Amino acid sequence: MAKLAQKSVDQAQAAFEKVSEVAHSNVQMFDAAANAYKNRFTDIQLKTMEFAQLNVNAGFAFARKLFAAKEPTEVFTLQQAFFKEQADVMQQQM
Length: 94
What we know:
mainly alpha; 2 helices; about 0% strand
């Protein structure tokens, strides 16, 4: 009877160790996936901030050009050029 009880305990311990190994492996895989996701998300955040800064700078430069314009036709030409440039930039940023 004692041998049977000991065998049951040994089997239970072996089964627990296998489950524990699988769980540990799953935690490591999840951690690696989470880190990869976090790194990618950080890259996207940084790129978004870079694009925002470039777009804001372009807007300020455009405003300066508008204030320097002397004729309404010059304003119209500046607007057309700015909108075209920004459309091109937007396509590149996507």
